[in-house]
Design a protein that fits this description.
This protein is of the alpha/beta class. It has a single domain, classed as 3-Layer(aba) Sandwich (Rossmann fold), CATH 3.40.50. It has five helices and five strands; from the N terminus they run E-H-E-H-E-H-E-H-E-H.
C-alpha cells in the first residue's frame, strides 16, 4: 500500500507552507488546487489519506470528498475548515471524513491525525 497523501487546497500559499512542513518530515505527498485536479491525481495514483480544504471555488471539499470516495471508497479524508466552522468539520465526519482540523492548522496535530488515518486504512486493508 502506498503511503502517499494528497493535499487539496485552492490557496497556493497555504499549499506551499504545508508542502515545506511535509518535506521536512519526509512525508510523500502530492497537491491539487481544485477538486478536478484532485480527482485527476486520484485516477493516476494510490493515496491513503487526503487532506481536503472545505472552502474551494467550484466543487467544495465535501462534494469533492464524496466524489473521491466513489472512486476509492476506503480513502481516508481529513477535512480542513477555516473561520472556526466547527459545524462544517462535524458535517464532514458525518459524510465520511476520518477527522477534521480547523485552520490555521496545528501541523503536528495534523500529522498525528494522518498517522491515525493511515493506521485505520492499514487495519482495514488486512481485515
Amino acid at each position: 500500500m502506498s503511503h502517499k497523501i494528497m493535499i487539496v487546497d485552492d490557496e497556493t500559499d497555504y499549499l506551499e507552507v504545508m508542502g515545506k512542513f511535509f518535506r521536512r518530515r519526509k512525508v510523500d505527498f502530492e497537491s491539487a488546487t481544485s477538486c478536478m485536479e484532485a480527482l485527476d491525481l486520484l485516477g493516476k495514483g494510490c493515496f491513503d489519506v487526503v487532506i481536503m480544504d472545505v472552502s474551494m471555488p467550484g466543487k467544495d471539499g465535501l462534494a469533492c470528498m464524496a466524489e473521491m470516495k466513489t472512486v476509492q471508497p476506503e480513502l481516508e479524508v481529513i477535512i480542513l475548515t477555516g473561520h472556526g466552522s466547527l459545524n462544517t468539520g462535524l458535517l464532514g465526519m458525518r459524510q465520511g471524513a476520518f477527522d477534521y482540523c480547523l485552520k490555521p492548522v496545528d501541523f503536528d496535530e495534523l500529522l498525528e491525525k494522518i498517522t491515525l488515518a493511515r493506521e485505520k486504512a492499514a487495519t482495514r486493508g488486512h481485515g
